[in-house]
């Protein structure tokens, strides 16, 4: 009884081989390699059982099913649900078909999205924003009216903006799996489906606030934090307290020395690691209530880490990427030797240009 | 006359009652199966018959049965999909209404073959009167000892439940049907796991169409080889075709697979030709979700041969010049019908029926409908046709269930074959929006 470990499977994603345990999904295997390879996930949420498969943002192409059966899969598959096989070859962003499909998904998700990021509390930590930045276009081909919904009040703590919802069902699974009774769900069908409580009920239980954290967009936001600040102006700090109902491990979001928001701690994939109760989230907002552990490590290149205070963090690449996209070398063929301009040494420019802009080979 | 398997006795008065059905040789398959055959032998016969799923996808039924997982101590279920809601298809409705015992007999035999002790018939919710007919027939069969405990003394028990559907097209997709049957919202499940492994209540389940199940009693009585002798190639047996549209005799016809499309349309035995004074313009051969074909391609293959009513011949040439047999919803259009309007109508249906679970279908179907609405009502832009093609491509194949494909194919194929007509609507909005206005440009009319 020496070898009780399951045999590891080798899967190649975008040319990078990784060994994973049997039963791992392609998405998890890709996440093991790193954020550059991991497909985006708008509905899949690892802590929630049964989530995934709905947004189709994580579609990948399986170029070879396994060593035994190396045929490619006929359609693109949802990487969040497809288990890896030994010898599987997966194409993520290296395949134009996948990129094309993903561009399509962004377009579909944004069709009826209000694009009110300037007034949305989620801006800056929004999965859809990141996804659109990676795969979206600056213009839309949609000319009709966007769909709207009647406003619904779902209680004193949670603000529901149905127009922003992308129907990922995460909040439904959350309520199913961590609360005793789910009182909200998806009503209607097709593009008229909406999250709601049948007959205008308030969502009222100790863990209801977690739907705010799992929401990938600004459809469910914290009423106690509403319009108070932008996330990139706040400082996240890890803290804990002795809570009778939950683990009490949270992230406090400071503006100056004032706690303006409390959320659960999230990992690098923006997934909550431990769900917290409403008392911690909404009612304990004094520094004296908490034991401070230190600044939160924001490991993904997000705008939250854009400001400040940790020199070792890589600055978000958004600006650089934008600059790289906008930057065009000027082919000036005029003879400048005739002009009485003092030629500056090229190093002068090199400093001011972002390092990401590398000359095309 | 072609061979009739399902509708042989359909015109016998009182066939909906147990006694008349029994007099016509009904329930002999149950006797034969339960008394002389083992479940595996039945599956073998159905495999030999090569009968392909009549619900639309055309997957071999015997193979589907043999995929059923059989773990110890776990119940297995047979579910009959009678949620027929495809526009243009009405064959199951006709069969259940007129000859309910044929389905029940098939259900008993199939359930015995699969080892299911509780089987369900999920009937479209709008067909309440059919549900009553079925329930009455089940009660009769039960009274005669063909259902319930210890059927015909064989020791086999079967309970048959008729379930009214949730009133949604999507509930005809097998996994959405199972969700709906479990009492949940009818959202299709992600596959795998397939229903054969984890279906109803997470137990192994087979979902079959009404027509597929109804054929089993004939196969048991006459043998799989006899069934396989009917038809052509891998399209064995007979098929019910729901013929509708601009023809002289619309209705449900049972045809032997392999019949030329031309004969089916023009022969007096079947559709009886295009309505007098008009010409054949286009054909939807298998229900609204299959690609539409112009008249010339509907009658002949790309290589000039006659097109036949069979799974292979209809899909010959892929989607470039072919279509699919689908569920057999045969819709015929003459030259007075506007393809743009028709495509918009289909698109509107899929927009309305999308479950809203996955994003390409939820957003894409609505988008296509709006663009088509715009073209039809004279507000189309020059780039709209390419936009539609692009949107349909981005939906197709990227969704959880085939509804996305079903919404994309009619639009893509209509543009593929009738692009001029779309262009005419965009170029001449005033003319095109006149009441009854139809494109009269160059096209293949037969």
UniProtKB/TrEMBL annotation, chain A:
<dbReference type="Pfam" id="PF13510">
    <property type="entry name" value="Fer2_4"/>
</dbReference>
<dbReference type="InterPro" id="IPR036010">
    <property type="entry name" value="2Fe-2S_ferredoxin-like_sf"/>
</dbReference>
<keyword id="KW-0408">Iron</keyword>
<dbReference type="InterPro" id="IPR001041">
    <property type="entry name" value="2Fe-2S_ferredoxin-type"/>
</dbReference>
<keyword id="KW-0001">2Fe-2S</keyword>
<keyword id="KW-0472">Membrane</keyword>
<dbReference type="GO" id="GO:0046872">
    <property type="term" value="F:metal ion binding"/>
</dbReference>
<dbReference type="GO" id="GO:0051539">
    <property type="term" value="F:4 iron, 4 sulfur cluster binding"/>
</dbReference>
<dbReference type="GO" id="GO:0051537">
    <property type="term" value="F:2 iron, 2 sulfur cluster binding"/>
</dbReference>
<keyword id="KW-0411">Iron-sulfur</keyword>
<feature type="domain" description="4Fe-4S His(Cys)3-ligated-type">
    <location>
        <begin position="97"/>
        <end position="136"/>
    </location>
</feature>
<dbReference type="InterPro" id="IPR019574">
    <property type="entry name" value="NADH_UbQ_OxRdtase_Gsu_4Fe4S-bd"/>
</dbReference>
<keyword id="KW-1278">Translocase</keyword>
<dbReference type="Pfam" id="PF22117">
    <property type="entry name" value="Fer4_Nqo3"/>
</dbReference>
<comment type="similarity">
    <text>Belongs to the complex I 75 kDa subunit family.</text>
</comment>
<feature type="domain" description="2Fe-2S ferredoxin-type">
    <location>
        <begin position="7"/>
        <end position="96"/>
    </location>
</feature>
<protein>
    <submittedName>
        <fullName>NADH dehydrogenase subunit G</fullName>
    </submittedName>
</protein>
<keyword id="KW-0479">Metal-binding</keyword>
<dbReference type="GO" id="GO:0016020">
    <property type="term" value="C:membrane"/>
</dbReference>
<dbReference type="Pfam" id="PF10588">
    <property type="entry name" value="NADH-G_4Fe-4S_3"/>
</dbReference>
<keyword id="KW-0004">4Fe-4S</keyword>
<feature type="region of interest" description="Disordered">
    <location>
        <begin position="329"/>
        <end position="361"/>
    </location>
</feature>
Automatic annotation (TrEMBL), chain B:
<keyword id="KW-0408">Iron</keyword>
<dbReference type="InterPro" id="IPR037207">
    <property type="entry name" value="Nuop51_4Fe4S-bd_sf"/>
</dbReference>
<feature type="domain" description="NADH-ubiquinone oxidoreductase 51kDa subunit iron-sulphur binding">
    <location>
        <begin position="340"/>
        <end position="385"/>
    </location>
</feature>
<dbReference type="GO" id="GO:0008137">
    <property type="term" value="F:NADH dehydrogenase (ubiquinone) activity"/>
</dbReference>
<dbReference type="InterPro" id="IPR011538">
    <property type="entry name" value="Nuo51_FMN-bd"/>
</dbReference>
<comment type="similarity">
    <text>Belongs to the complex I 51 kDa subunit family.</text>
</comment>
<dbReference type="GO" id="GO:0048038">
    <property type="term" value="F:quinone binding"/>
</dbReference>
<dbReference type="Pfam" id="PF01512">
    <property type="entry name" value="Complex1_51K"/>
</dbReference>
<dbReference type="GO" id="GO:0003954">
    <property type="term" value="F:NADH dehydrogenase activity"/>
</dbReference>
<keyword id="KW-0520">NAD</keyword>
<keyword id="KW-0411">Iron-sulfur</keyword>
<keyword id="KW-0285">Flavoprotein</keyword>
<dbReference type="InterPro" id="IPR037225">
    <property type="entry name" value="Nuo51_FMN-bd_sf"/>
</dbReference>
<keyword id="KW-0288">FMN</keyword>
<protein>
    <recommendedName>
        <fullName>NADH-quinone oxidoreductase subunit F</fullName>
        <ecNumber>7.1.1.-</ecNumber>
    </recommendedName>
</protein>
<dbReference type="GO" id="GO:0051287">
    <property type="term" value="F:NAD binding"/>
</dbReference>
<dbReference type="InterPro" id="IPR019575">
    <property type="entry name" value="Nuop51_4Fe4S-bd"/>
</dbReference>
<dbReference type="GO" id="GO:0045333">
    <property type="term" value="P:cellular respiration"/>
</dbReference>
<dbReference type="GO" id="GO:0010181">
    <property type="term" value="F:FMN binding"/>
</dbReference>
<dbReference type="InterPro" id="IPR011537">
    <property type="entry name" value="NADH-UbQ_OxRdtase_suF"/>
</dbReference>
<dbReference type="InterPro" id="IPR001949">
    <property type="entry name" value="NADH-UbQ_OxRdtase_51kDa_CS"/>
</dbReference>
<keyword id="KW-1278">Translocase</keyword>
């Amino acid at each position: 009884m020496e070898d009780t470990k399951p045999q590891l499977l080798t899967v190649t994603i975008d040319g990078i081989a990784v060994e994973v345990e049997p039963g791992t999904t392609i998405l998890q295997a890709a996440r093991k390699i790193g954020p550059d390879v991991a497909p985006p996930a708008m509905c899949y949420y690892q802590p929630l059982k049964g989530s995934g498969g709905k947004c189709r943002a994580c579609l990948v192409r399986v170029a070879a099913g396994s060593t035994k059966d190396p045929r490619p899969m006929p359609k693109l598959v949802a990487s969040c649900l497809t288990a890896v096989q030994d010898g599987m070859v997966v194409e993520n962003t290296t395949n134009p078909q996948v990129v094309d499909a993903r561009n399509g998904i962004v377009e579909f998700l944004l069709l009826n999205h209000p694009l009110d990021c300037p007034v949305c509390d989620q801006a800056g930590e929004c999965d859809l924003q990141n996804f659109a930045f990676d795969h979206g276009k600056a213009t839309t081909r949609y000319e009709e009216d966007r769909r709207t919904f009647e406003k619904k009040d779902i209680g004193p703590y949670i603000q529901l903006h149905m127009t922003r919802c992308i129907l990922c069902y995460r909040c439904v699974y959350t309520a199913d799996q961590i609360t005793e009774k789910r009182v909200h769900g998806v009503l209607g069908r097709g593009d008229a489906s909406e999250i709601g409580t049948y007959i205008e009920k308030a969502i009222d239980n100790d863990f209801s606030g977690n739907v705010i954290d799992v929401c990938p967009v600004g459809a469910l936001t914290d009423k106690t934090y509403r319009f108070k600040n932008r996330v990139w102006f706040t400082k996240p700090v890890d803290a804990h307290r002795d809570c009778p109902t939950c683990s009490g491990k949270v992230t406090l979001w400071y503006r100056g020395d004032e706690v303006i928001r409390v959320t659960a701690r999230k990992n690098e994939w923006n997934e909550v690691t431990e769900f917290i109760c409403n008392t911690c989230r909404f009612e304990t907002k004094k520094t004296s209530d908490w034991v401070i552990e230190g600044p939160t490590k924001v490991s993904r290149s997000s705008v939250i880490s854009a400001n400040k205070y940790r020199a070792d963090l890589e600055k978000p690449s958004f600006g650089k990427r934008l600059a790289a996209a906008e930057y065009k070398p000027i082919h000036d063929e005029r003879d400048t030797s005739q002009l009485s301009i003092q030629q500056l040494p090229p190093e002068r420019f090199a400093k001011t240009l972002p390092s990401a802009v590398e000359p095309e080979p | 006359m072609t061979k009739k398997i399902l509708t042989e006795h359909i015109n016998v008065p009182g066939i909906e009652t147990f006694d008349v059905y029994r007099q016509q040789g009904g329930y002999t398959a149950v006797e034969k199966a339960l008394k002389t055959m083992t479940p595996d032998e039945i599956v073998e016969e159905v495999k030999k018959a090569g009968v392909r799923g009549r619900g639309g996808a055309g997957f071999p039924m015997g193979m589907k049965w043999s995929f059923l997982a059989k773990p110890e101590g776990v119940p297995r279920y047979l579910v009959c999909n009678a949620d027929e809601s495809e526009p243009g298809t009405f064959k199951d409705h006709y069969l259940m209404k007129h000859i309910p015992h044929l389905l029940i007999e098939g259900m008993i035999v199939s359930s015995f073959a699969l080892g299911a002790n509780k089987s369900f018939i999920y009937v479209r919710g709008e067909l309440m009167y059919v549900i009553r007919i079925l329930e009455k027939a089940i009660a009769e069969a039960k009274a005669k000892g063909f259902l319930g405990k210890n059927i015909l003394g064989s020791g086999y028990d079967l309970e048959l439940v008729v379930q009214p559907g949730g009133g949604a097209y999507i509930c005809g997709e097998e996994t959405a049907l199972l969700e709906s049957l479990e009492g949940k919202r009818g959202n299709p499940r992600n596959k795998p796991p397939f229903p054969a492994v984890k279906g109803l209540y997470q137990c192994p389940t087979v979902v079959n169409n009404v027509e597929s199940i109804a054929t089993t009693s004939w196969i048991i009585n006459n043998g799989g080889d006899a069934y396989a002798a009917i038809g052509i190639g891998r399209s064995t047996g007979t098929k019910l075709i729901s013929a509708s549209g601009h023809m002289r005799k619309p209705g449900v016809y049972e045809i032997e697979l392999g019949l030329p499309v031309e004969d089916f349309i023009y022969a007096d035995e079947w559709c009886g030709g295009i309505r007098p004074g008009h010409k054949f313009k286009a054909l939807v051969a298998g229900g609204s979700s299959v690609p539409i074909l112009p008249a010339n391609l509907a009658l002949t293959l790309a290589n000039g041969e006659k097109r036949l009513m069979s799974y292979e011949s209809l899909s010959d040439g892929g989607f470039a010049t072919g279509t699919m047999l689908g569920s057999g919803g045969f819709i015929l259009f003459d030259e007075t019908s506007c393809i743009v309007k028709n495509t918009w109508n289909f698109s509107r249906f899929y927009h309305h029926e999308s479950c809203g679970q996955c994003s390409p279908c939820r957003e894409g179907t609505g988008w296509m409908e709006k663009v088509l609405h715009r073209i039809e009502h004279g507000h189309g832009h020059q780039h709209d046709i390419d936009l539609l093609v692009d949107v349909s491509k981005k939906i197709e194949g990227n969704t959880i269930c085939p509804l996305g494909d079903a919404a994309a194919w009619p639009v893509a194929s209509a543009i593929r074959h009738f692009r001029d007509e779309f262009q005419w609507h965009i170029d001449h909005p005033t003319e095109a929006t006149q009441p009854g206005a139809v494109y009269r440009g160059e096209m293949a009319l037969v």
